[in-house]
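Input record, target 12 of the design panel.
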């Protein structure tokens, strides 16, 4: 697929995800947070376009430089927005984008994601760590092994020949995005994308986004919530979401969603990982729609 087309779709997916409302526990068009607002995410979705386009042009499959482009997109976002609005989205959409650019058909994308991730380098790992630090995103590397907050982190990566794939594999047990990036993205390709792709044919774009977000959250406990409050709390939120979805055909469903949004907001439960997975799912759906084969 053409690099320009992929970049546009990445921007569209970012905008559609944050526009979904009332998307429980996250910033959306009717809910700002103290440190970030709806428009921050719109700007962030726009400014990654040039980097996605560059990443998808003249790809070297043996050295796709995914870390370089993740860092480049996050650094460009930081020029405009001084908050972590899109690190997760960038981490997910970059390998999907590059995989789409080298794929002869939509069905090749998942295998090409695995191929590209297996070809990441130590430089990619160092660039990823720089991106995480620019975004000030805790959790992914805050462990005893290759702690992203350590002053010596990048030297340790080089001394031990740790690629971006390697460090994400270490993080996978506690970080859903790392888990997706070191597999063939089952949450996106088997839950999120099929849900959104079907719903967008019969629902409004907002309804499709909201229901996709809720579906992912009902199946996959949010690891951002897990890191802040523990696995039991994350599971509790997923089970509440599952119960909520049982009411999706009731006339007061949107009111119930709004109440759930208020509950998560007041209790500071932020399913931010689910939002990233939703953006990636929307992205994949539009790639599917615009792929020639």
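The sequence produced for target 12 reads:
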């Amino acid at each position: 697929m053409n690099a320009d087309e992929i970049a546009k779709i990445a921007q569209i997916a970012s905008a559609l995800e944050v526009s979904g409302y009332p998307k429980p526990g996250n910033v959306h068009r009717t809910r700002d947070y103290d440190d970030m607002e709806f428009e921050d995410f719109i700007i962030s979705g726009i400014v990654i376009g040039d980097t996605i386009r560059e990443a998808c042009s003249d790809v070297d499959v043996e050295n796709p430089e995914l870390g370089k482009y993740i860092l480049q997109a996050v650094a460009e976002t930081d020029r405009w927005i001084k908050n972590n609005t899109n690190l997760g989205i960038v981490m997910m959409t970059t390998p999907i984008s590059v995989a789409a650019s080298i794929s002869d058909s939509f069905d090749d994308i998942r295998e090409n994601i695995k191929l590209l991730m297996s070809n990441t380098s130590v430089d990619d790992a160092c660039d990823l760590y720089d991106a995480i630090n620019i975004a000030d995103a805790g959790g992914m590397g805050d462990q005893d092994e290759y702690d992203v907050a350590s002053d010596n982190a990048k030297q340790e990566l080089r001394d031990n020949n740790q690629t971006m794939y390697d460090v994400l594999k270490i993080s996978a047990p506690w970080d859903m995005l790392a888990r997706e990036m070191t597999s063939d993205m089952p949450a996106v390709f088997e839950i999120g994308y099929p849900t959104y792709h079907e719903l967008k044919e019969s629902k409004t774009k907002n309804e499709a986004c909201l229901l996709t977000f809720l579906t992912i959250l009902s199946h996959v406990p949010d690891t951002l919530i897990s890191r802040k409050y523990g696995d039991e709390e994350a599971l509790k939120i997923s089970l509440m979401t599952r119960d909520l979805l049982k009411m999706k055909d009731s006339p007061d469903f949107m009111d119930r969603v709004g109440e759930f949004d208020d509950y998560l907001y007041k209790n500071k439960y932020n399913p931010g990982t689910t939002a990233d997975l939703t953006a990636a799912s929307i992205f994949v759906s539009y790639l599917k729609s615009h792929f020639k084969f």
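The chain is about 65% helix and 0% strand.
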